[in-house]
Amino acid sequence: MNRKPLVAGNWKMNMTVADARHLVSEMVPGLQSKVGVDKVICPPHTALLAVSSLLEGSDILLGAQNMYWESSGAYTGEISPIMVAEYCEFVILGHSERRAYFGETDKDVNRKVQAAFSHGLSPIVCVGESLEEYEGDRTYDVVFRQVKMGLDGLEFEDGDGSNLIVAYEPIWCIGTGRAATPEDANKVVADVIRPALVELFGESMAYKIRVLYGGSVNGENAREFFEQPEIDGALVGGASLKVTDYIQITSAAAN
Ligand code: PGA
Fold this sequence. Notes:
Layout (H helix, E strand, L loop, with lengths): L5 E5 L6 H16 L5 E5 L5 H8 L4 E5 L16 H5 L4 E4 L2 H7 L3 H13 L3 E6 L3 H5 L3 H12 L14 E4 L13 H20 L1 H4 L3 E5 L7 H5 L6 E4 L6 H11 L2
Parallel strand pairs: 1-2, 1-8, 2-3, 3-4, 4-5, 5-6, 6-7, 7-8
The protein binds 2-phosphoglycolic acid (PGA).
């Protein structure tokens, strides 16, 4: 199955507008030259406008890190899919930090994924087990449930699975410098995520959906992940703020 690789940089709550401008202008030339890979950067909401104008004319795409599911209304502090879609093609949803610190449930994630689809956004839906769940041998149950509940009821209008992206991010690997082994990550995608996608959408659609790995990906280890048959790219946190690393990662995913 030929799935186009995708590398997305999740800047998290980092970068003022001035910092963002500086980082993007340093990164764009190196990223531009990489072909055969979808390149996405996800700055904080406050920097989306500035970054989107810097990316004009480039082939680098923009993503948000979160959004609410309602289109508008009295939801103080929230950002709607319509607002995100003004600047972005992608939106990260259900990141473990959102689940852990802001109480997002699988049901919330599902509402957001549905809203993203209905506004033409490609969601990057994060799933992954905690250290406790990993050590308690519950990875399969947890990840299977997150995929099934997070993506329940989704309909692909154009029959194209490439606009849904799943990111497998074991929580114990995020920001810890301790990545999963590429083989273990591949196995979770092959044995849990892909079968859950098959149950939800049927065989042919399930194999069109891209699955990324995330958790301590850097310029050194990225290639080994991308060599795995079930890993179609990476969701990168810390290393997406480092120009050399991020270009190295993107380059490893490129043709
Ligand atoms: P990390 O974060 O690359 O810093 O581990 C990944 C993520 O949270 O998406």
